[in-house]
Amino acid sequence: MKHTDSITKLNLEQKCALLSGDTVFTTRGCKNAGVPSITLSDGPNGVRKQAGAADHLGLNPSVPATCFPTAATVACSWDPALGEEIGRAMGEEAAAQEVAVLLGPGLNTKRSPLCGRNFEYFSEDPYLSGKMAAAYVRGIQSEGISACPKHFAVNSQELRRMASDSVVDERTLRELYLTGFEIVVKEAHPKALMSSYNLINGIYANENAHLLQDILREEWGFDGAVVTDWGGSNDHALGVKNGSTLEMPAPGGDAVRELLAAVRSGKIAEADVDARLDELLTLVLDTHAAVERHSRSFDADAHHALARRAAGESVVLLKNDDALLPLAEGTRVAVIGDFAETPRYQGAGSSAVNSIKVDTFLDCLNDSGLHSVGFAPGFDRQGKPDAAKQAEAVALAAEADAVLLCLGLDEIKESEGLDRSDMKLADNQIELLQAVREANPNTVVIVNAGASLETPWLAHCKALVYGALGGQAGAGAMVDVLTGKINPGGKLAETWANAYADTPARDHFAGPGRTVQYREGLYVGYRYYQTAGVPVAFPFGHGLSYTQFAYSDMHADAHSATLTVTNTGDRAGAEIVQLYVAKPNAEIFRPAQELKAFAKVKLAAGESKTVTLTLDDKAFRYWNTRTDSWEVEGGTYELRVGASSADIRLTAAVEVIGTDALNPYAGKALPHYQSGKVQTVPDAEWETLLGRPIPDDRVKIDRNMTLGELNHGRSPLGWLVWAVMTARLNASYKKGKPDLNVLFQYNMPLRALAKMTNGAISMGMVDGIVMEVQGFWVIGLVRVIFEAVKNVILNAQLENRLRNS
User: Fold this and answer.
1) Cβ distance 35 to 20 under 8 Å?
2) GO molecular function, one example (predicted)?
3) Per the CATH hierarchy, to which homologous superfamily does domain 4-293 belong?
4) Residue 228 carries which DSSP code?
5) Which of 419, 432, 355 is closest to 392 using CA atoms?
6) How many whole angstroms separate alpha carbon 336 and alpha carbon 455?
7) How confident is the model at residue 699 (pLDDT cuts 50, 70, 90)?
8) 796/793 Cα distance (integer angstroms)
9) Residue 203 gets which letter from DSSP?
10) CA–CA separation, 505 vs 509, rounded Å?
11) Residue 585: is its pLDDT beyond 60?
12) Residues with Cβ < 8 Å from 272, sequence gap 6 or more?
């Protein structure tokens, strides 16, 4: 251990106390042992250090900070160097605000486009996600503080996120949902990592020995601190035993007593506590020293400029008929759409940044060189029909050379705590688009949304520009793209399906039960669409430019591919060169092709550059469940290089030496997985892949019953609580603004009451509540009262001992 001297100064109770938070965002300290307290803060796309009363959902005000584009946006830049710059700036702001651990980036694989938190995540592809996230981590930690990549792992939905069981086969787990984290851990060495709320194959992530010990610590060599998601600890003692370092936010004395009792009973050893404490002290002492040394100021203007550049490099030009864009100086434009005046530039929830300043599209247009003939909001933001607004917009459109129509998803569509109900733009926005296009066919649609959309309306616009959620300076970046000051070079980091019905996980995403079956297996995103032959609106990796690029002279072997890329157009631009690996006629089933390398190349008009794409140890491997290890199927592979997953320009065949492992699927009937047509996999085939029976999906009345499931209980009081919460939630939906606090509570298991109330509720009280819900009304209430009194007394005694020790 690194900190034996400090640890030996502590008694067992002090050690146990240090392994849980003191307040919502701070750790406990111990002056006698020289252990300071440190501050953690949300930070996927900017620092959210709260100024007053702390909460984990972004409800209360926070200190002003730069709001950078979200991960979903910056992923479209395919530029790790840019990600590292953003990370460095966020790390600088965090340290300046005395934040030692920045909770981000988020890199969960986007299994479904309906996940309400997809704007916080990079991609449907784990390789791209891992490379971008590693860059962020390097940047953040260059300032001496810690990044905290999240959520580890298989966390793909918001519904019942604290109590859902992600049922996934081992190969899919390894290849799709852990590879991104593996890249981050091995390439960027984060000092901390956040465990996810959910169970994985029946065991909570935060106490999952296979996840935290076998894979994270032993296979990958992670030696940092594992931090729970806020309220994400189920069995604190088991978490400590299996690799979880710090329980957050502030569970109070009950968590300390739980660890003490576990050591005394032999459930865990004191050595387990010491191991976790050693990890925590490394994190605390290193980051505290860096924060103490750091300046308390940063260049806000420079960071705003970086945010604008990042947004500009991430804009994706999806359609540009008749080369309508870029717009020439002096073009008379009509600006239509509520988002032009009130920008949608970030997501809702714990990632929401109190932006230092926010550019609007209307203001930025003033210095663009374009001539605005006026602005009309055009539609109600929350989707209500408004004929007068539409008529005003149509009349304005007729007066212009071109229309800049700003559409997107409103705040209730994308938020932590709830998933999207569909992939559609609001009907009133589509109706407006159709009407505007009739008045002026030169219509440019600008979309602000953190996730993919259905686009049956695509024929009604000549140009479509995806700005995603561009942060506080995103509006200015969009104007730069429209006028040609920036040549768009972004490419999609996720596929845009034609319809939600076409998506692979449609029948097993955010369903009514406790289990979430990852029945589609390996076939997520482009891996599904291209293998199963399903047409899409826009493929993974797609993005247009105002110039053109030619690919030539490819030479390849099993280690790399080298080619020449030439800008054949008349203006400078950037091309993202993508390398996909395929194995035709593979014995071991696999997707049609998979991204294994990429490079962003900036070229002047007429310039050529030689590009080398290096293949690493992940290029040809697959997880073999028979040998329980990574293996390589030997033989001929195709290296496919192109401008998108569907626009392959050059192909080379290479021979790869295999590991000669036995086929784990020999003798097993897996026709849907062989073909990739996985939307309707039969139970028997799914069980064959999974290697065990499909787990029970019924709601149980226990500590992990959510408040939103209390209607399944046997208590009138529970029914009343459920009815009140449901009514409040529905009322917030009707207002067009989700109540994040109610949403969190609705999906929160009963045991989280003991984890999220700063010690006011103990697990004994939770057990009394469970008894009440089970139908033992009087006994349950009596137990709650008894345990409440006991908790107050024991907490006071504990805090007194800790203060005086």
Assistant:
1) no
2) beta-glucosidase activity
3) Glycoside hydrolase, family 3, N-terminal domain (3.20.20.300)
4) E
5) 432
6) 19
7) confident
8) 5
9) E
10) 6
11) yes
12) 240, 241
Residues whose CB falls within 8 Å of the CB of residue 522, separated by 6 or more in sequence, listed in order: 171, 172, 175, 176, 590, 591, 673
Architecture per CATH, 312-494: 3-Layer(aba) Sandwich (3.40)
Percent of the chain at pLDDT above 70?
Answer: 99
What's the CA dihedral at 276, 279, 281, 286 to 10 degrees?
-170
The enclosing H or E element of 372 equals strand 371-376
Give the three-class secondary structure for 90. Answer: helix
Residue 332, phi then psi, degrees to nearest 5: -85, 115
Q: What backbone phi and psi angles, to 5 degrees, belong to 310?
A: -65, -45
Decide if 156 contacts 172 (C-beta within 8 A).
no
Alpha-helical segments (H) within 360-473: 361-365, 387-397, 427-439
CA 682 to chain centre: 30
pLDDT of residue 56: 55
Cβ-based neighbours of 267, under 8 Å, separated by 6 or more: 237, 238, 241, 261
Residue 796's contacts (CB-CB under 8 Å, 6 or more residues apart) are: none
Complete DSSP assignment for 616-632: -TTSSEEEETTTTEEEE
Task: Report the alpha-carbon distance of residue 667 to residue 645 in Å, rounded.
Answer: 32
Separation between Cα atoms, residue 161 and residue 555, nearest integer Å: 47
Overall pTM surpassing 0.85 (yes/no): yes
Instruction: Give the start-to-end residue ranges of the domains of the chain.
Output: 4-293, 312-494, 549-680, 707-804
The whole-angstrom separation of Cα 183 and Cα 371 is 48
Selection from 92, 135, 441 nearest residue 297 by Cα: 92
Predicted pLDDT of residue 23: 95
Distance (Å) of CA 318 to CA 153, 165, 386, 444, 546: 32, 37, 29, 11, 12
Catalytically annotated residues = 229
Same fold, 4-293 and 549-680: no
Give alpha helix (H) positions in 142-269: 170-172, 179-188, 209, 236-242, 253-265
* C-alpha–C-alpha distance, residues 188 and 136, integer Å: 9
CA 100 – CA 246 distance, rounded (Å)? 14
Tell me: pLDDT of 495 over 80: yes
Query: Rounded to the nearest 10 degrees, what angle do helices 777-804 and 253-265 cross at?
Result: 90
- Contact (CB, 8 A) for 454 and 55: no
pLDDT digits (tens, 9 = 90+) for 108-128: 999 999 999 999 999 999 999
Give the three-state DSSP class for 98: coil
Q: Give the pLDDT score at 60.
A: 65
Q: Tell which CATH classification among 2.60.40.10, 2.60.120.260, 1.20.1050.10, 1.10.260.40 matches the domain 549-680.
A: 2.60.40.10
- Report how far residue 307's alpha carbon sits from residue 615's, in angstroms, rounded to the nearest whole number: 31
Q: Which pLDDT band holds residue 687 (cuts at 50, 70, 90)? A: very high
**Which pLDDT tens digit goes with each residue over 528-557?**
999 999 999 999 999 999 999 999 999 999
Tell me what pLDDT residue 58 has: 54
264-313: pLDDT as tens digits: 999 999 999 999 999 999 999 999 999 999 999 999 999 999 999 999 99
pLDDT-derived band at 413, boundaries 50, 70, 90: confident
**Average pLDDT of every residue of the chain:** 95
Residue with tokens 């066919």: 441
